[in-house]
Structure to design on (390 residues):
């Protein structure tokens, strides 16, 4: 441990994870299991709600088991059906090839945080102000005046953050047109179903999470949203034009005091490595919610980055440049095609004529819908990673 009179504290770590969301906490658990020193810096407190679809495909289960995580203790809902509809009420339904489960970020992130704490991993409540790289190491400066030195940094600070500005990431310079809204409800909805209902200017995901709660989370074009006074008016005059959404909303009672929102949601390309920081989760790239699997992607990206850092630590990967190149390659192989498919489908659904044509076809040929789902979901995440040389 090193001390510096100009700041409160300066400490050496092998890995610092910036952001304690799903990807950040998962990576810390993985690195800890490998015996690698890691700390997490998270500005928020646990537990907390986050805007999220809160559905995860079962592709993550073998990996979670390897991490010694028993998600069943959180009593998630088991989901095996998918449904999609247009504003005119056309609907298509199919079984999910792998199935999945519904769990709130409130419960899941808190569970992962508790697991880290029980395994002796530090989660520091602070805000990272700056990350600099020099002489083959990182210096992380925080709002409270701490300075941390690390061999590696994983960026897990979410969809959009001040750090993106300070790192001059390309996507942050582009205005993002989307607003996301989420709340939990009491009401009647099939426990084994995840549904995606299209409306003018966006689409809404509906599924159950633990405690028999319904999660309703939607993405809206801000230009359409700002024409209305508030969220209630927007839902009444826009979302409810879809008869399926109208039925759900009319028969549901909100649990939150009010919905939570995030603005400037961007689906632009992001680089998975920036200034030598390996980006994971939404920090590396955001998939359209209509593909319904962003949480699984966050978990998988944490695994890829953690395995590579493990290989680097053991000397299987000799150079930082190779580490970064391998991560970019593996991230693109795992998620690049999914994201492209998501953008394509989003473009179709944004056009009412094309959306109704697509849904009509899928309603008559549900096996085609199942094929689309397969393209936006991965195979079960392998437990063991690759071996590396050089």
């Amino acid at each position: 441990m090193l001390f510096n009179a100009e700041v409160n504290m300066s400490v050496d770590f092998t890995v610092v994870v910036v952001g304690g969301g799903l990807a950040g906490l998962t990576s810390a658990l993985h690195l800890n299991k490998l015996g690698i020193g890691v700390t997490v810096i998270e500005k928020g407190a646990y537990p907390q709600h986050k805007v999220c679809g809160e559905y995860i495909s079962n592709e993550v289960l073998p990996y979670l088991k390897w991490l010694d995580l028993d998600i069943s203790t959180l009593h998630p809902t088991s989901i095996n059906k998918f449904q999609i509809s247009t504003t005119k009420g056309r609907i298509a339904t199919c079984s999910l090839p792998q199935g999945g489960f519904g769990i709130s970020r409130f419960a899941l992130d808190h569970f992962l945080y508790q697991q880290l704490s029980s395994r002796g991993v530090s989660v520091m409540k602070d805000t990272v102000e700056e990350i600099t790289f020099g002489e083959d190491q990182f210096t992380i400066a925080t709002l409270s005046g701490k300075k941390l030195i690390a061999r590696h940094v994983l960026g897990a600070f979410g969809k959009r953050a001040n750090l993106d500005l300070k790192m001059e990431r390309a996507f942050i310079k582009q205005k993002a047109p989307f607003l996301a809204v989420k709340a939990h409800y009491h009401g009647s909805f099939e426990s084994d179903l995840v549904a995606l209902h299209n409306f003018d200017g966006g689409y809404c995901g509906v599924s159950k999470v633990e405690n028999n709660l319904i999660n309703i989370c939607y993405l809206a074009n801000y230009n359409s949203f700002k024409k209305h006074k508030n969220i209630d008016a927007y839902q009444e005059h826009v979302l409810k034009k879809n008869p399926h959404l109208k039925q759900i909303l009319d028969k549901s009672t909100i649990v939150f005091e009010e919905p939570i929102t995030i603005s400037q949601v961007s689906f632009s390309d992001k680089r998975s490595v920036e200034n030598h920081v390996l980006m994971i989760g939404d920090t590396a790239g955001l998939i359209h919610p209509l593909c319904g699997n962003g949480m699984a992607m966050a978990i998988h990206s944490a695994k890829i980055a953690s395995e590579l850092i493990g290989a680097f630590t053991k000397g299987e990967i000799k150079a930082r440049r190779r580490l970064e190149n391998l991560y970019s390659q593996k991230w693109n192989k795992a998620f690049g095609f999914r994201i492209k498919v998501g953008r394509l489908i989003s473009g179709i659904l944004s056009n009412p004529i094309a959306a109704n044509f697509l849904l009509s076809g899928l309603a008559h040929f549900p096996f085609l819908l199942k094929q689309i789902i397969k393209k936006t979901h991965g195979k079960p995440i392998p437990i063991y990673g690759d071996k590396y040389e050089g």
